[in-house]
Amino acid sequence: MQLFYNPRLDTSASQFTFSEEESKHIVKVLRKKKDDILHITNGNGYLFEAKIIDASVKMCKAEIIDTDKKHPKMYWFHLVVAPTKMNDRFEWFLEKATEIGVNEITPIICENSERKVIKLERLQKVIQSAMKQSLQTFLPKLNAPISYKEYMAKAQEGLLFIAHCEDEEKLDLKRRVAPDKDVTVLIGPEGDFSKTEISQAYEKGFLPVSLGENRLRTETAAIVACTTVNMINNG
Question: Which residue spans traverse the membrane (predicted)?
Answer without folding.
Answer: none
